[in-house]
Structure formats: C-alpha cells, structure tokens
What does this fold into?
Amino acid sequence: MGDIVRFGILGAANFARNQMAPAIHAAKGATFAGLATRSPQKAETFRDINPELEVFDDYDALLASDEIDAVYIPLPNHLHVEWSLKALRAGKHVLCEKPMAMRQDEYAELIAARDESGKLAAEGFMIVHHPQWLRARDLLREGAIGELMHVDAYFTYNNRTAPENIRNQAGMGGGGLRDIGVYALGSVRFATGLEPTHLTSQLITEQDFDSTAWVQGRFPGFGYHAMVSMRMANRQRVTFQGSDAAMTLTAPFNASVYDQGEIVLDLAASDRRIIRYPGVNQYVLQVEAFCRAALGAETYPWPLEQARGTQAMIDTALAGETIDAR
It folds into this structure.
C-alpha cells in the first residue's frame, strides 16, 4: 500500500460521482484508482475525475484486485453489511456510507470481521471531521454555555415527487431515520460524549417506511428533541441550550452545500458571537483521516462502536408510535 491508499468505489452512485470520488481524488494520502460498474456511460463521467481510472465490470473483480487497498461503498442501505463484509474478507479497508447497518445487532459481525482482518472499517459520518463540530464539542466541554439543559436538532428535505428514489423504498433500507436520523441523533452523541437514557418517538409512515419522525428523550443532565423528515422544506439546525448561553450550528450536516457552516453563540441579549467556516470540504477531511488511520498514523475518530450507538437510537426510534400517512 505504501504511503498512498488506493481507493475503489463499488457502484456509480450519483453521490459518489458528485462528492466522494472528487474528495478521494483531492485528499492527501489517497488516490481514486478503481470503479466497479457495468455502465460504460457512467464510468466515463468518473474518468473526468481520473482519466487513468481502472473500471471493473463487477464488484467482486474490484475486490480481487491487488491494485486496490480500500473500498468506498455508496450502495443502497440494505447492501451495506453484505459488501462491507466481503471487502474486509478480501483484505480491503472499508469506508461505507451511513447507515452502515440496518440494525444494531448487525454490528457484531462487522466488528468481528474488522478485527479478524486487521483492516479499518468505518461509517461515512463525515461531520465528525468538520471543524464546526470539533469546535462545538470543545465549547461544550469548556462550559462556554454553562450547564447544558436541552438540545434541538432538525434535518428536513422534500423528495415526495421522487417515489423511485431509494430513500422512498422500504425494501432498500429507505426512510428518514435511516437516511438523515443518523445526523440528528449521532451528532448529539458525538458533541456531548453521552448516551440517551430515555427515548420515545412518533412516526408518520408511508408504505412501510418513515417519512417524518419526531424523537424525544433524555440524556444525562439534558433533554433532547429531534425532527427528521423527507416531506418538508429544507432545514438544518442544531441548538444546544445552556444555563448561561445558547449555541446554534447552522448548516450542521451539509456545510458548504446547504449553506455555510457557522457556530452562533448567544451569550446575552446583546452579545452574539459567530464563528464561520467557509470553504471547508468535510468529505476531503474524512478521506484524509481515514487514510491516516489505515496507514496506522492515528486512531479513527468514529469507530464502528460509535456508529453502533447511533444505530441503537435509530432502532429504538423506529419502534415508536406510528401514524399512517394515508
């Protein structure tokens, strides 16, 4: 492997073409070396990123290649565990899109395969690499808002007019909680370092998947409320309400795509401080951190054990009270 991690991508997903393949190509310590797809037309759009890209006609052929060190998996959610396990058993490092599994109990096999292979396996929870979230975590630890009392998290978008989208397909692991609940739930765990002690939810369901979810609960010392929806106008925001001040993260999940990432500290009625993060590409930062960890230079900040904790919250929320949208 040397000092460069050679990445292969399983499938020609739009997100891979628009975000992750360019990020891999731009990241220090990585190169975008291979793509597995049966579509020559889709392959050509990826060659715009790397003209020397090697294209494989099936996933197994890419996993068998000695020219690939790591794989990025952007497949539909229900295929994540299967292909992550295959890649680890083929001796590849694995960076898999969130959620890496459909249920908490599936992480046991992933962790065992990771440990047996000696390779790095991680969920693509990119926000933990963004300086916006790293600074927010530090501010909470420093007591910048006093005692944390409550957290509100919102992530909504509307894809009602795209019924063919995999997020609207229950059999492919669709639904709002699996797609974006990972952020509204996992980000609070990351920033506070705490786990929920109580959780309830109400879900609007459509054709056996959740299109909107409200999640309420308690963490040690503070209350929690989240809303995620695939049927509402675009909105992203997380607010940490303290005894002395409030801290709001704008564009907390798709910084530089949804809007500029900022931390807004409301310390008093006339004392507002704003920390801005223009031009940060959290996908590039994610790949660079992954490469350093794969090369043994540092510990990866979001191990499978952390991803499993968020999946446990999602599993609990999915078991909540349901309201049929019809």
Observations:
- The chain has a mean pLDDT of 96.
- The radius of gyration is 20 Å.
- Residues 176-192 form the longest helix (17 residues).
